[in-house]
Amino acid sequence: MSSLPQILRDQLAATPAGRLPFAQVMELALYHPEHGYYGAGPRKLGRQGDFFTSVSVGPLFGKLLAMRALQEWQALGEPEDFTIIEQGAHDGQLAEDVLSALEGRKLRYLIVEPNPRYREAQAKRLGDRVQWVESLAALQTGPKHGFFLCNELPDAFPVHLVRWCGERWRELYLEEDGPEAFRLVTGDFSCAELAVEAKHLPRDLEPGHTLEINLAMLAWIRDLAHAAFRGAIFIADYGLDAEEFYADSRAEGTLRRYKQHRMDGNVLEDLGECDLTTHINFTRLIEEAERHGLKKMEYDLQGRVLGRMAMPWLKSLEGQSLDAATMRQFQSLTHPAFMGRSFRCLMLKKAAP
Ligand SMILES: C[S@@+](CC[C@H](N)C(=O)[O-])C[C@H]1O[C@@H](n2cnc3c(N)ncnc32)[C@H](O)[C@@H]1O
Fold first, then answer.
1. What is the pTM of this model?
2. DSSP secondary structure string, 313-328?
3. N or C: which end of the chain has fewer CB within 10 A?
4. Average pLDDT over the chain, rounded to whole?
């Protein structure tokens, strides 16, 4: 079976110009069913994996989200069809944490999962406590009430790369650089939507400034806006506001690769064996969400959002002390030096479409 670099070489050879938009490369590197980093099944996250997520820190993240989902259910008048919907559920750990925290309350849990191998791994862990759909399109017919949640999902979507060339923005394509390596070269935009997005980018940057455009994220939030449920949408990810995203200090963009807890910008090396990821442009995400009828309820550093979410629970513990493991998790999730500052949380309100 061919490795991912060989698959890329074959695809490059099959295109007339011998080059591919970076978004297609990232799609293959992450989601090729055999050789993509996320293709073959859920990899270990946390200490034994390549990176930590708020989920891999421990069950507290799920517990806080369970309490928030419960509040949403109550605010909607406790409807019977209320469903917690998760996308990017990986090995089902967050679903398990949320369901355990709900302690037998009969709330439905639905996972949006396109990859059959992931569904298999999730079913092994969760049994019949959850149901699945393959894509957001299935949510256009129901449920009617819901709480959608995802952690580190849009940072894993394939992105286009664009570079400011002094007079105009151009797209970056992958091509071969000899028999062993690849390089990025500039070209015209590969699709009209990218050209439209690029029109809104700043033009007072130094030539060579490179950044990512996450068209998949924009399509995703539009799909969510058109889903049938009313309720709330919770998105946690690392990301930036537009002015941080376009800052001179980020002239190389935010695309990074992760392997065994080491992070660097050599994104064309070891394709398929490293996680590739970018920061979310939250300003652009919120703008698109609001254009499609979603309402921003809360957007802040993860430390502050989870701190506020935890308040009623911490108050209810008055007089009792937190066990050491829970205390450590709370610190990791909320302290600015750990995940409290680099991660941000966005809560959107969703009326019926
Ligand atoms: C960085 S991991 C985060 C995993 C988990 N949510 C966590 O926080 O530990 C990104 C996950 O998103 C999944 N993913 C990417 N695109 C997806 C899509 N369109 N639908 C569902 N899952 C997707 C990947 O398979 C991967 O499991």
1. 0.97
2. HHHHTTTSPPPHHHHH
3. N
4. 96
